[in-house]
Amino acid sequence: MFKKVLVANRGEIAVRIIRACRELGIRTIAIYSEADKNALHTTLADEAICIGPAISRKSYLNIKAILEAACVMGADSIHPGYGFLSENAKFAKLCEEIGLKFIGPSSDIIELLGNKSKAKETMKKAGVPVVPGSEGILKSKEEALKLAEEIKYPIMLKASAGGGGKGIRIVNSKNELEKAYDLVKQEAKSAFNDESIYLEKVIQNPRHIEIQILADEHGNCIHLGERDCTIQRNNQKVIEETPSSLIDEKIRERIGQIAVNATKEIGYTNAGTIEFLLDKDKKFYFMEMNTRIQVEHPITEMLTGIDLVKEQIKIASGEELEYKQKDIKLSGHSIEARINAENPSKKFRPCPGLITGLHLPGGNGIRIDTAIYSGYTIPPTYDSMIAKIIAHGKNRGEAISKLKSAVAELVVEGIDTNVEFILDILNNADFVTNNYDTSFIERLTINCQ
After folding, report:
1. Whole-prediction pTM value?
2. Domain locations in the chain?
């Protein structure tokens, strides 16, 4: 087992990793930017070191500074969390080269799956159903136009190196495609320094379903059921739940087995998530694979009783999985809401600032993952998510009721939050009756205006 882990992240996920390490008897090193000097993760870790100014590219994305910090502080491993450098193949490769264990898959696998078009090709070869579209990267606008006519509009142009909802554009006609092609290439270049794009048919009104995978370095692999992440705004998840009420046991077993087979086929290790789109006929199509821990991992932990972050660390240290597929039991229902420092009535404008008062909810089946405290100043530099509220109940109805109660109890004074917006979703009749798809928030927002 590792002796000292450097946590290459900030906020609630850094706190989450530090706590898991503490339970495993592992010392931790927190890195922080100048803006995060008083952040909670810096006080919870055994040691902390400043790696640069507030701007991410000079701190949390500064590979040189992070690796130097790891070496100076005597780390033997690095946990990247999610976001920032968590899916950066170069970072993982450099960790490998200097003898630091990267708590995640190998750099080669990250590079393969980080390129969305290559990942799609790889999954197709591994027997995973994929969305109809281009065979790899588009070589020209003419190729895109020809393919779009063949598979029929609407289609979607996507950045090959994309993530986080960036570099994606839906196109409904030939005229739109002529204009959008160059724009998406520019967006891809700006966001990911890689202008390559690919094309897919739009699966209309889908559900977004993902399978949680754990795979060790000894050839063992299991899945921990699915998460339904359909409630999204601008391709960013807002509410997630497990299990999906749209999937029966037969589909669950099939999609889970396909995900496990694909994971073994590509030689993937550690925690990972294979994401699918489920159409109105309950046919599923591969979308992407995330090679890291997910923001929404707590709902799977609540459902299965398995600590995913601890499992990541154990796998990276060379241990075999303690579980077989037959050991995985899905108990009840879990649901999570992301609480953001933003004002939904003002086009979701971010709202950084000083938290002057704070009350966090509690109760049976309620979990809060956060790094905020009364007196903490939320910096304007980073993602606006400030907390995750997770509820677990014996069924979906009870889980929703518990989550509504917990969200309504939350008090964050001094800043705006999306609490009322979350409650609008949880009280919506279509959401309660499981009658929704990825256009849900767009329709909800339009109706509210």
Report:
1. 0.90
2. 4-103, 132-201, 207-448
